[in-house]
Write a structure and sequence with these properties.
alpha/beta, 7-stranded mixed β-sheet, 14 strands
């Protein structure tokens, strides 16, 4: 499997894109501003969108993508794009975005029989079969209902925590799952540790406790750092010393895990 990093920032600025990953060519994991760097043809090939939670930096491109690909997918008789998310996340998307006021409801357009989008409810622990990929829904601990995802491969899993604070349930599951690569957020520096706690994000000191529960010698990629703060946050992480191979993700990175 190949995972292309479209966006991995905690907010926007020149050169920064919010969270989105493209799994091979057909599965999008979150739909932040990074989706806008795809060509139209690349967007047309997306059949599934896995959503971690309802916050804008992770969902804002769902509706824009739907609008962009409607004509071409309809002409090619492509099925609706399946949007997989928790029931609470789907309810939030329907109420606050696809409501005809903020954005048209593409689960009803161009018509009810052949819409552009179709919502599919997921639950923690569920394993989804998406084309050739098996994807497990993982627990997350955030200010809104949230999940992470593990894309299962023959030699280990690519794991994305989503937005989360300290999360014992995640590590209980990962203790039984071989992890080939872990993508984990660190949204704040330790100078904002209190804010990280309130907003249920990680900072370097929280991250240290989380990674202590991960099997040694694992590739760890840090995501969701605020623009302009990458060097400071990564310096704090490096100063801790670490038994893992840790580095910051950047947009355009490509990760490969054997299938």
């Amino acid at each position: 499997m190949q995972i292309r990093v479209l966006g991995c920032s905690g907010s926007i600025a020149a050169g920064s894109r919010t969270t989105s990953f493209l799994l091979d060519e057909t599965v999008l994991i979150d739909a932040g501003t990074g989706v806008g760097d795809l060509t139209l043809e690349e967007m047309v090939r997306i059949d599934h969108i896995l959503v971690t939670h309802s916050h804008l930096d992770h969902v804002l491109s769902i509706g824009l993508l739907a609008d962009s690909v409607t004509r071409r997918r309809r002409a090619a008789a492509r099925p609706p794009i399946q949007v997989h998310a928790l029931a609470a996340t789907i309810a939030a998307l329907r109420l606050h975005i696809f409501n005809g006021v903020i954005w048209p409801d593409f689960t009803r357009l161009p018509n009810l029989t052949h819409p552009v989008l179709r919502f599919q409810t997921v639950a923690v622990g569920q394993v989804l079969q998406l084309a050739q990929h098996q994807v497990e829904v993982l627990p997350a601990s955030h200010t809104v209902p949230a999940v992470g995802y593990a894309v299962l491969g023959s030699q280990g899993a690519w794991v994305f925590t989503g937005d989360t604070g300290p999360n014992a349930a995640l590590w209980a599951r990962l203790a039984t799952l071989p992890v080939a690569a872990l993508v984990i957020e660190t949204a704040f520096g330790d100078d904002e540790k209190a804010l990280a706690g309130i907003s249920r994000h990680l900072c370097p000191s929280f991250l240290r406790g989380e990674l202590a529960q991960l099997a040694p010698d694992t590739d760890v990629y840090i995501t969701h750092i605020k623009p302009g703060e990458v060097d400071a946050v990564m310096s704090e992480i490096a100063a801790q010393g670490n038994r893992h191979r840790v580095r910051a993700l950047t947009s355009g990175d490509v990760m490969s895990v054997p299938t």
